Amino acid sequence: MRIKLLRNVVLSLLVVIVVVVLGVGGLATAVSRHAAASPTADGDVYLPIIATPGTPPPQIAGCAIFPGDNIWNTPVDTLPIHANSTNYINTIGADSGLHADFGSGVWPPGSNSPIGIPYVDVSGSQPDVPITFVAYPEESDDGPYPIPPDAPIEGGPDSDGDRHIIVLDRDNCILYEMYSAYPQPDDSWEAANGAVYDLSSHDLRPNGWTSADAAGLPILPGLLRYDEVAAGEIRHAIRFTAPETQAAHIWPARHDASSYTGSNYPPMGLRLRLRADYDISGFSPEIQVILRAFKTYGLILADNGSAWYISGAPDERWDNDMLHEMDVITGADFEVVDTSSLMIDPDSGQAAQP
To answer: How far apart are alpha carbons 224 and 324 in whole angstroms?
Structure first.
């Protein structure tokens, strides 16, 4: 009994030290993602794992991809399950398996189409070129954009698909994204529409505006990248698609692309997470990194497409066979979360930390 009492006193002192170092607010933030200290069967009290507050946001080419408290970078592992979770998942496909829509090499074989959504970073001295928007000019951010003539195009130069182009100005941390982009003989570009993001800001696009994505969201923050998997941690939500969406969107999405009005169709911006009790121990270590992110940061519905297609950047270091390990995970292994408590301002991506 004395040993247990001494241990509990020591643990209490540790809590005091954490409060002094972090401040009460910092402690609240640190503990919020974990259960409170709880007694074991024999009466011992064990403190939860305390996450360090102010976890740095993900970075690409030295640029923080939005501030750490942006909705893309906010954990959802402790949020309540959405009341309509089951219906949303059934509509997307409870029995349908996940598909890694990225990898190494090309598809189909022999084509010039890398698997995934590519991006490129350029210096601040990259020349700006004129951009002509032909489908949604009124919902596009005016050019010129610093798009190099050899910028990688989703699906390759011969693609007739989405043809996204993503360019990151690494010196100014400005993100440029275009949909259905085609290079012109004079080094200008023609695109359906385009969007520009200041990555130091929480600003969202005007409500009702599309972007290079149907949800009016940026694409780059939601891509799985090999470097972060190799580093052992992913600190952001991941983009995915669903075949039938609702004619509605929820924060932080700004746009929808559907005529379906039924309440069981998932709206753009919907956030999901892999169930906490889903056993990931049998997967390869690299896949476990991805699945931990699915549990902690979850998925964001960003576009119409095949059910449970997970977006990532192509990279020759991906092991395609390993990525197929995720095929056994189905929609039924996910749950939709209610993110309404995170919204501070409907026109801002800043999120109240759970």
So the answer is: 15
Label each residue of the chain as H, E or C: CHHHHHHHHHHHHHHHHHHHHHHHHHHHHHHCCCCCCEECCCCCEECCCCCCCCCCCCEECCEECCCCCEHHHCCCCCCCECCCHHHHHHHHCCCCECEEECCCCECCCCCCCECCCCCEEECCCCCCECEEECCCHHHCCCCCECCCCCCCCCCCCCCCCCCCEEEEECCCCEEEEEECCEECCCCCEEECEEEEEECCCCECCCCCCCCCCCCCCCCHHHCECHHHHHHCCCCCCEEEEECCCECCECCCCCCCCCCECCCCCCCECCEEEECCCCCCCCCCHHHHHHHHHHHHCCEEEEEECCCCEEEECCCCCCCHHHHHHHHHCEHHHEEEECCHHHECCCCECEECCC
pLDDT at residue 7 greater than cutoff 80:
no
Q: Which distant-in-sequence residues (6+ apart) come within 8 Å of 243 by Cβ?
A: 92, 93, 304, 305, 306, 307
Neighbours of 295 (CB within 10 A): 18
Count of CB atoms situated within 10 Å of the CB of 108? 6
Residue-wise burial string across 112-142, b where 16 or more C-beta atoms lie within 10 A, e elsewhere: ebbbbbbbbbbeeebeebebebeebeebbbe
pLDDT tens digits, 145-184: 999 999 999 999 999 999 999 999 999 999 999 999 999 9
- Residue-wise pLDDT for 85-113, tens only, equals 999 999 999 999 999 999 999 999 999 99
270-327 per-position pLDDT tens digit:
999 999 999 999 999 999 999 999 999 999 999 999 999 999 999 999 999 999 999 9
DSSP-assigned beta bridge partners for residue 101: 311
Name the token pair of 195.
């969007």
Closest of 193, 115, 184, 121 to residue 155, by C-alpha = 115
C-alpha–C-alpha distance, residues 351 and 344, integer Å: 6
* Beta strands 238-242 and 193-198, pairing class: unpaired
